[in-house]
Write a structure and sequence with these properties.
Blueprint: E1 2-6, H1 10-22, E2 26-30, H2 33-42, E3 47-51, H3 59-68, E4 75-80, H4 84-93, E5 97-101, H5 105-121, E6 126-129, E7 132-135, E8 140-143, E9 146-148, H6 152-163, E10 169-170, H7 171-179, H8 191-202, E11 211-214, E12 218-221
Parallel strand pairs: 1-2, 1-3, 3-4, 4-5
Antiparallel strand pairs: 6-7, 7-8, 8-9, 10-12, 11-12
Helix pairs in contact: 2-3, 3-4, 6-7, 6-8
C-alpha cells in the first residue's frame, strides 16, 4: 500500500517516512500543498497524512480540492494541539481522522492501521494464488500457511501483480506503481529484475510459474482457476 505524507517540518517528515517505510508501506512525501496536489492527481494512494499548516497551499485547501476532484483516498489530518476549529473544518471537508501535534508514533501507526483496515474491509483484503496468500489489511504473506518476510518494495510488487491477476503488467507500469517519481529508467533499469528474483526466491517460485515473465512486455500472474 502507498501512503503520501505532507508536512513542511523536515525532521518530522523524515522520521515519519522512515518509521512507516519500516512497516512495509511505500511512502511518498511532499513539503507543500501544491506538490501534494500534483502527486495526488498523478498517483493513486491508499492513505494521505496531511498537515494543515503548509506553505503555498494549506492542508485544508488541499483536502477540499481532493474531495472536489472526487479523490476518495482516506485522509488523516495533523493539527495543532487545541485547534478545535481546524479539526471541525477538516472533518466537514471530508477528513477521515485527525491527530493533534505533538503525537506519539505508536498512536499514529495505530490510526494508520485503522484507516487502512477500514478501507480494505470495503474491498478485497485477501489475495490468493495457489498456496500463496497476501492479506492487504495486515500486510502478511504466507505460502503453505508459513509466513514470508518481504521488504516493502517486494510486498508492493506482489500486491500489484495479484490485484491484476490474469493481466500482463508492463515493466513501466510496475515501476511507476512501486517507485513512483523515484524511478529513473537510466540508473535503475535492473531494479525490477533484482526485486522480482528476490521475490520469487522468497515465495518458492524459482521456476517462474507464479510470476511469469512475458518477454519484451513485463510480468503476469495467471490464475488457471479463474
Amino acid at each position: 500500500m502507498r501512503i503520501l505524507i505532507v508536512d513542511d517540518e523536515i525532521k518530522l517528515l523524515q522520521q515519519l517516512q522512515e518509521t512507516i517505510t519500516a512497516d512495509r508501506y511505500d511512502v511518498d512525501t511532499a513539503v507543500d500543498g501544491e506538490t501534494a496536489l500534483d502527486k495526488l492527481f498523478a498517483n493513486p494512494y491508499d492513505l494521505v497524512i496531511l498537515d494543515i499548516m503548509l506553505p503555498v497551499i494549506d492542508g485544508l485547501s488541499v483536502l477540499s480540492e481532493m474531495r472536489q476532484a472526487d479523490i476518495k483516498t482516506p485522509v488523516l489530518m495533523l493539527t495543532a494541539k487545541g485547534d478545535i476549529e481546524d479539526r471541525i473544518r477538516g472533518l466537514d471537508l471530508g477528513a477521515d481522522d485527525y491527530l493533534a501535534k505533538p503525537f506519539s508514533i505508536a498512536e499514529l501507526m495505530a490510526r494508520i492501521r485503522a484507516l487502512l483496515r477500514r478501507t480494505s474491509d470495503q474491498g478485497i483484503s485477501l489475495l490468493e494464488i495457489g498456496a500463496l496468500t497476501l492479506n492487504t489489511a495486515t500486510r502478511e504473506v504466507e505460502v503453505n500457511c508459513q509466513p514470508v518476510n518481504l521488504t516493502p518494495k517486494e510486498f508492493s510488487i506482489l500486491e500489484f501483480l495479484l490485484y491484476n491477476k490474469n493481466r500482463t503488467i508492463s515493466r513501466f507500469n510496475l515501476a511507476e506503481h512501486v517507485w513512483g517519481d523515484e524511478f529513473d529508467p537510466f540508473t535503475m533499469s535492473n531494479f525490477i529484475d533484482v526485486h522480482i528474483k528476490n521475490l520469487r526466491r522468497k515465495i518458492g517460485d524459482n521456476d517462474g510459474t507464479i510470476i511469469q515473465t512475458i518477454r519484451g512486455i513485463g510480468f503476469l500472474v495467471k490464475d488457471n482457476n479463474q
